[in-house]
Structures are given as C-alpha cells and as structure tokens.
Amino acid sequence: MQLAISAIVIHHLYGNTKSDFSISLNEASWYGSILFIIHPFGCFLSGILQERFGKKRCMIFANIPSIIGWTLLYLAHSSFFLYASTLLMGFSIGVGAGAVHAYVGEITEPRFRGAMASLTNTAALSGIMITFILSSLFDWRTVALLSICCPIICILLIIFIPESPIWLIAKGKNEKAEKALCWLRGWVDSDTVKPELFKLLHYNNVSGTIGTQYSNVVTSDNKSLFSKIAQFKEPSVYKPMKLIMIYFFTSYVINLTPGKPFIGKIMTEVGLRDNQSIYLV
C-alpha cells in the first residue's frame, strides 16, 4: 500500500489549484523518489536489528514508522509533510521486507519455503491493488486514514507468533527455540520436533554461533570479518545472489517500480484523463 499511495497523491495534488494545496513538478518528483532512496538504508539497518533483537521484534518495529507516515500523510498541508511521510514509509518497507523474508525463510519447512516466500510478493501486489480500489472510492486523505489500520493490525498479529527458532538457538535460548518449533509445526509435542531441532543445533555449531546444550559439537571462535566476506566466493552464495541481482536490476531498469508514482501523469500525457482510478485498478 505504501508503494502505491504516492501515485494517488501526485495524481490529486500535482498542479491542482482546486485542492487545499498543490505540488509542483519538482516537488512531485522528489515525493515519488524519496521512498526508493530511503528503502536501501532501511534494508541495511534491518540486518543489524535482526541480529540484535530478532526477526519478530524487527517486524513489529518496522510497522511503527509506517503508522507515523500514514498519519503525517493524512494531516499533510505542505510538501514537507509529504516528504516526511514517504521517508518514514520507505524506511518501514526496507526494515520490514528484510525481516519478513528472513523470518519466512527460517521458520518454514524446505518443501513449503518457495511457496511461502512467494506470498510476500503476492501480499505486496494485493496491497497495491487495494490502495487503487480505495482511491476509486475515496479521496487520498481518506485512503491514508484507512491505511493506518494495516500496520496496526500487523503489529497485533505479529505479537502472537513465536520468534525464529534459529535466532533463539543462536542466542543460546534452546528451550524457547523448541517451544517455537512446536508452535510453528502445528502445536505438536517436543518429541515430534526433536530431529529438526538437532539439525538446527548442528547448523548453528557449524556456522560458528553459540547455543550448545543439545549437541557436543565444539563451537569455534567468531569468524573474522574477512573470513565472512570470503564466503561470497563460494558458488552456493554468489550464484543465487547473481540471479537475484540480475532480476532486481532488470525490474528497476525497465521502470516497473520507480514508475508507479508517476503513472497518473503518464496516463494524462497519453490522453487518459478521465476515470484514471479505474484504469489503475
């Protein structure tokens, strides 16, 4: 939803003298771009927060800037508030996306991992479509007000899910990791998840982090920064990363994502001046 709202706002405010305030071409360009500028910084910080506080807390934290951003957008009466709102939204998307993908990858069984990972993109596209549907029914301020409910609901739902078992093991909280696995596998008893728990403990020891009470494997000292960087030379690391980088580079170069904020202006220039909200849906 945060990826789509800028298109709605720019459509309603760019050069619109009938609105309570309007924005120029330069202001519209900055408003549509700030989110994508801040996004990478949120992703970078997400990795640090996940390591220190865990995936669950990181996902909860990611929704707080989103709530503030939607509130600022609803109250906006100048371009400054628009900039502040989209900055917070971009930061929220960056922090949240990293935590969500990492959490899904760590909690799901291998046979379900691909399907579960794809649901994140499905949810993002569904949010964009919902935003466009709301924009065809309400003005942009009302859409912003209704959208505040989304991060609030997310926080309330995240509270009830367990922390990633892998993160708990890395922090030496093996009993909590076992309980989390029991919950994630369908509220089963501890005997059912014991084999999977032993595998996670073994992986944890091999990777050089802490958490050892279920295994006799002796952990090594923390790897140096250079040895961690050297892991990127491994084919199992750089080959999938290369594919991912090609995918994201291609999708951004052909303007699929960065062009979204300006889709209303594009439709106006090609002659689609009426019923733009319906065309967006």
TrEMBL record:
Major site of localization recorded for this protein: membrane
An annotated Gene Ontology molecular function: transmembrane transporter activity
Pfam family for this entry, one: Sugar_tr
Transmembrane segments: 28-49, 82-104, 116-138, 144-170
Protein localization: Membrane
GO cellular component terms, semicolon-separated: membrane
Topology versus the membrane: Multi-pass membrane protein
Record-linked InterPro entries: MFS_dom, MFS_sugar_transport-like, MFS_trans_sf, MFS_Trehalose_Transporter, Sugar_transporter_CS
Coiled-coil ranges (or none): none
Location of the Major facilitator superfamily (MFS) profile domain: 1-281
KW Membrane (keyword) present: yes
Source organism superkingdom: Eukaryota
Alphabetically ordered keywords of this record: Membrane, Transmembrane, Transmembrane helix
Keyword match NADP: no
PANTHER family xref list: GH07001P-RELATED (PTHR48021:SF1), PTHR48021
Name assigned to this protein: Facilitated trehalose transporter Tret1
UniProt organism field: Schizaphis graminum (Green bug aphid)
Gene: Tret1_42
